[in-house]
């Protein structure tokens, strides 16, 4: 389940002065491994200056395209994002894990009205979702609210224009720029007033089936809360964070003692002893057990496992539903063991 595959870069396309799109050449014998649902991400593993890095990037291409393309924005002080923007070239080889993620649109033939709120590089999975929604049914509509500092920093701007030209009466985009005033765009950031303008004014006659939110944590919660205040049911609001605020691990302060842990991954069982103040994934990786992981920050879903014996508590959880937690699922990168023994199963998720 945590297997990586060496894939060749077939294209490197500049999106903005600070972002690129990388397209991977997936050989025929790996096609089935890299089938994906709109909105999913891949994890890239690469060594930069001798350090192994794992980074999760959303797929921007639609499943129907037959391509696996990700958009990567250069992060000031970043490591892999800088490397991807400045050094990666066609023909290079990167290790890639098959697609994963729950922030998805399942293609079907039903008519859907979908809206999305994206900021910065949060547009990446939305590109795949928007194309898939529009392809699925000739009457489906998609409304996109896209926030950036300036138009020159807006990723996939040309691709969005192509969607507008192709689906003139079904794809609608509202740009916002926080550092420039531009024609046909609002000035500022995505906030409560923006959401109200879209759902209560500009598209007040549209009944939306789903809302997709992707961006920084503050924006996600502002949009989500406003939608709920407008009567949108919680299960119609899907979100994915590309960054998450740091949460103080106060839970660890109250934990003492050791836990005997049994780990099932890829049909192999491993045993280890860990301090309860440690996070489960950290302890597993110290033993060189090849458990799946990517962000290690509770943002992606790569490290989900099922507790089959014992108890653990998460420092934070922005991925799993209450029902899934009740069923025993945990984000191992956020979980502390609470019991003397703990069994976790990475295979049964």
UniProtKB/TrEMBL annotation:
Q: Which UniProt keywords apply?
A: 2Fe-2S, FAD, Flavoprotein, Iron, Iron-sulfur, Metal-binding, Oxidoreductase
The terms under GO molecular function for this entry are: 2 iron, 2 sulfur cluster binding; flavin adenine dinucleotide binding; metal ion binding; oxidoreductase activity
Entry keyword annotation includes Iron: yes
Stretches of the chain forming a coiled coil according to its record = none
Specify whether Membrane is a keyword of the entry.
no
2Fe-2S ferredoxin-type domain: residues covered: 259-349
- Residue span, FAD-binding FR-type domain: 2-106
Give the cofactors, semicolon-separated. Answer: FAD
Looking up InterPro entries in the UniProt record yields: 2Fe-2S_ferredoxin-like_sf (IPR036010), 2Fe-2S_ferredoxin-type (IPR001041), 2Fe2S_fd_BS (IPR006058), Beta-grasp_dom_sf (IPR012675), Cbr1-like_FAD-bd_dom (IPR008333), FAD-bd_FR_type (IPR017927), Flavoprot_Pyr_Nucl_cyt_Rdtase (IPR001709), FNR_nucleotide-bd (IPR039261)
Tell me what this protein is called: Flavodoxin reductase
Q: Which organism is it from?
A: Flagellimonas eckloniae
Q: What is the lineage of its organism?
A: Bacteria, Pseudomonadati, Bacteroidota, Flavobacteriia, Flavobacteriales
